[in-house]
Design goal:
Helix content: 40-55%
Radius of gyration: 25 Å
Largest sheet: 5 strands, mixed
Number of helices: 15
Structural class: alpha+beta
Shape: globular
Distance between the termini: 32 Å
Number of strands: 12
């Protein structure tokens, strides 16, 4: 079969490209967003005003994905901002993936706008990998109207790095003999998995390029960056043994967070947000027949200070009421009770199959030793009854929402408020199963 051949296919400025195609082809607009300084941005009125995607003409103004729209407009006052249309982006993503799967069954959707293709052994069908990559790239443009970059290599890491070498609408290779000339001269911050914090640490060690990292002393790197240091050292040397996965890997955790449309300054207001988040987290756990034994709450205040706390649960759970109880307990320890809150999150980890329930020792020994056996038995019985009630309640709610929609039933606390009763910052493309949680 020979060496593996992996493609990484990435849509160029996906949301911006998809929006531009929609406005030109469907709405008949004359202006092409891709040809002017423009960006797709969130809803400023809902405090989600950040840049989601930018056009190529916007790059000279140093417009950055993820920065506030207000900051972007200061750099480029004529920047044209359009709101996202997630339903259309989902349709584009599905059409994009369908084309890729015509060439190989081994396609791993990495996000809404990028995928890995295992093309190993297809040379007999398609010939030279570079040639078929150009055919795929050109077909996507002719049929769907947007451009992609394709990186070709022997593993996923190098394929992804290859695709990012120069954009847009190009095919690049990055095979082992090309690493020293194509990848090593790049700034170390451009290596996959090297974030700003790691980049700062590496630069303090005198490591400025990917090549510097590849040729550095591994013991030195690990002493400063631990296990993460070993990973990025291997990446710098082009080492990656991960396979293209046709089926998404199981979730390692379930979590939601939301930027609140208004500053929260009271315990009651924060609890309502936490309840809304626990509604979605609990529903997702139950839908996958999973329970969690660890929960964390994250908080961002109005000064953009991030903090979080986590705890191991007394028993595994997937019930909304119990998740909410634990979340409120953590929040009480986390918040200073005076700084307004901008964002809250609830995340669960350490998962287990809900069909295999682990009983907690504390469910039968929580009474003092002087209590009688009958009292302990009574407490155990009450715990069991409580679990059955929670299970029946959540099962009934889930059934109604699955049949009639999420808004078919909601808690009374949300009837008059501005807050969504099942909030969580899940973009619509994720709700439609386009991306997996990492």
């Amino acid at each position: 079969m020979g060496e593996p051949i992996i493609f990484h296919v990435d849509v160029n400025s996906a949301f911006l490209s998809w929006e531009a195609c929609y406005r030109k082809e469907i709405l008949g607009e004359e202006i092409d967003l891709r040809e002017i300084p423009s960006a797709v941005g969130g809803d400023m009125e809902k405090r989600k005003g950040v840049i989601l995607a930018k056009s190529t003409p916007a790059k000279p103004y140093n417009i950055q994905t993820g920065e506030p729209i207000v900051a972007a407009l200061k750099k480029c006052p004529e920047l044209m901002i359009v709101k996202p249309n997630f339903e259309h982006y989902v349709r584009c993503s599905r059409a994009f993936m369908e084309i890729l799967r015509e060439y190989t069954p081994k396609v791993e959707q990495y996000s809404i706008d990028e995928a890995f293709m295992d093309m190993t052994g297809t040379r007999g069908l398609y010939g030279d990998p570079v040639g078929i990559a150009h055919i795929i790239k050109d077909r996507i443009y002719s049929e769907l109207g947007f451009t992609v970059n394709i990186g070709i290599a022997h593993n996923k890491l190098l394929a992804k790095m290859a695709g990012d070498l120069k954009k847009p609408n190009l095919v690049h290779t990055l095979f082992p003999h090309e690493i020293a000339t194509k990848m090593w001269p790049l700034p170390v911050g451009e290596l996959f998995f090297v974030g700003k914090s790691s980049e700062k640490t590496l630069r303090l060690l005198g490591i400025k390029t990917i090549g510097d990292l590849a040729n550095a002393d591994l013991k030195l790197i690990k002493s400063h960056l631990k296990k993460h240091g070993e990973t990025i050292y291997q990446y710098a040397n082009g080492i990656d043994r991960s396979a293209v996965e046709e089926v998404s890997a199981p979730n390692k955790g379930y979590g939601n967070s939301m930027t609140i449309p208004y500053d929260v300054s009271s315990v009651e207001g924060a609890h309502l947000v936490l309840l809304s988040l626990c509604e979605t987290v609990g529903a997702r756990l139950r839908a996958d027949h999973m329970e969690a034994s660890c929960i964390s709450v994250s908080l961002v205040d109005c000064d953009f200070i991030h903090s979080s706390k986590q705890m191991t649960l007394r028993r595994n759970t997937c019930y909304t009421a119990e998740l909410y109880e634990y979340a409120c307990e953590l929040f009480q320890k986390l918040w200073d009770h005076h700084t307004p809150i901008r964002q809250l999150g609830v995340h669960t980890t350490k998962l287990s199959d809900a069909h295999i329930h682990q009983m907690s020792l504390f469910e039968t020994t929580s009474l003092p030793h002087e209590k009688s056996k009958s009292q302990k038995s009574s407490m155990f019985h009450k715990n069991e009854m409580k679990q059955r009630k929670l299970e029946k309640l959540d099962a009934a709610i889930d059934a109604i929402r699955n049949k009639y929609g999420d808004d078919a039933i909601k808690r009374a606390a949300f009837l008059e408020g501005k807050l969504d009763h099942m909030a969580g910052g899940i973009s619509k493309e994720k709700k439609n199963g386009i991306t997996k949680e990492v």
